[in-house]
Amino acid sequence: MGHARTNAELLAQLNRGAATLFCTALLVTASANHLCARLSVDDPDSLRSRAWHWGFSAQQASFFATAPIGLSAEVAIDAKVVIKGVHATISFGLQPAYFPSVGKWDEAPFNFGHLKQLNLSTPAGTIPGMTIGNQWVNAGDVFLIDRGFVPFYLSGFLSLSPSGEVVLEYDEYVVSSMRASMWGLTMPVRVHIRRERRGRVMPFVDLGLGFDMVRTKAEYEVYSDRITYAYLDGTLNLIQGQSAYDEPFKGEASRHLLFTRAHVGAGARFRRFSAGVRAQRMMAKDLTYRGAGYERVRGNILAIPFLAGAAEDADLQEELDANGVALYGRSGLAKKEASDGSGTSDDLFGISRFWDRTTWVASLTFWLR
Q1: Residue 15: which H helix or E strand, with range?
Q2: Any idea which of 71-80, 142-151, 194-203 has the lowest mean pLDDT?
Q3: Alpha carbons 225 and 302: distance in angstroms, whole number
Q4: Residues 186/210, Cβ–Cβ less than 8 Å
Q5: What value does the mean pLDDT take over residues 119-140?
Q6: Backbone angles phi, psi at 13, to 5 degrees
Q7: Residue 21 pLDDT greater than 90, yes or no
Q8: N or C: which end of the chain has fewer CB within 10 A?
Q9: What's the CA gap between 322 and 344, in Å, rounded?
């Protein structure tokens, strides 16, 4: 399996995203300044005046199955406009936020399995695989596995070539002491559709873009099984190992998660206070592998079930009790699937369950100016 993005690469991607948002904010501000310079104050459809504001917010989020509380700061520039006799104020802002605790989990009632490699010869047109519990599993699959005894069954023919030297490579992770916090950056654009007067409530609509980085810290104890086949002398070897890491997939994936999003919301401002709620939509890339759909995960795919509340899901536990395994993602995905059902060598991670595209944030803001 090729290497996924490391922490350094994920942080570089975060920096590029921040730079993009910052440049967008500069462009928007420059456009407003340009319009103010060109349009006459006497023009009823022109920008009337501008003012800078800054403030602090308390925020309550609904993020996957968690409900973190955080703080944010915001700087914004207001532009008063009159369009066809309707008075409005447009606000362009930049809002960093921090949620110190998105969740804490000492342990989960399941382990994580990853079938990294499976090299078996099968009849033409079939895909080599194995059965774990009552579930058929293919190379690259990531799944939850019951912490009790779960039987493994292999079916296929050994390959009489050097490419079949590694018959099977399987890792099982015991994840404990999972801790998550979150940083976010949002560029909101608000439209207050009323003439601003002291003592008057100013309703607004809110649109914008942003991203969140969920920072996770956990302990990953890995149990590895590797079966090799020496086809020249016809011998099979089982190599087992146990190790501990502070990053998922033995350091092949970042320990953190990066989400990009767009939002729409509404609220109201009264003097120095404003309150609002916004619905945020994740902008994850859709991936396909042999007809199955996945959402791209940028970072720690092992943290998603914790965020989604899988450890407290009674129905999921019943599924694990019955089948032994619950598939939820895979490695080795490509940005574009080839016509033969395979893909390019991008080697991305994807998830097929526990994903929540829509999250919510409610906020109460005090404006210093």
Answers
A1: helix 7-38
A2: 194-203
A3: 19
A4: yes
A5: 84
A6: -65, -40
A7: no
A8: C
A9: 36
> Across residues 115-135, what is the average pLDDT?
84
The β-bridge partners of 53 are: 76
As given in the structure block, the two tokens for residue 145 are 């596995």
Who contacts 247 (Cβ-Cβ below 8 Å, separation ≥6)?
Answer: 7, 220, 253, 254, 255
CA dist., res. 3 & res. 158, Å (int): 27
Give the C-alpha separation, 207 to 209, whole Å. 7
Q: In percent, how much of the chain has pLDDT > 70?
A: 81
Answer with the residue of higher pLDDT: 265 or 236.
Answer: 265
pLDDT bin (cut points 50, 70, 90) of residue 122 is confident
Show the tokens assigned to 129: 């695989």
Of 307, 303, 289, the closest CA to residue 352 belongs to 289
Cα–Cα distance for residue pair 252/300, rounded to 1 Å: 10
* Average pLDDT value for residue range 19-47: 44
Q: At CB < 8 A and 24+ separation, what contacts does 150-157 make?
A: 150/324, 150/325, 151/324, 154/120, 154/130, 155/120, 155/129, 155/130, 155/131, 156/120, 156/121, 156/122, 156/128, 157/120, 157/121, 157/122
pLDDT over threshold 70, residue 16: no
CA–centroid distance for 367 within its chain: 31
What pLDDT shows up at residue 330? Answer: 95
Contact 258, 213 (CB under 8 A): yes
Tell me if 304 sits within 8 A of 295, measured CB to CB: no
d(C-alpha 57, C-alpha 275), whole Å:
9
**Separation CA 159–CA 228 (nearest Å):** 11
**Do residues 50 and 27 make contact, with C-beta atoms less than 8 angstroms apart?**
no
Rg (CA), the chain: 26
Of 262, 245, 261, which is closest to residue 253 (Cα–Cα)? 245
Question: Phi and psi (nearest 5°) for 33?
Answer: -60, -40
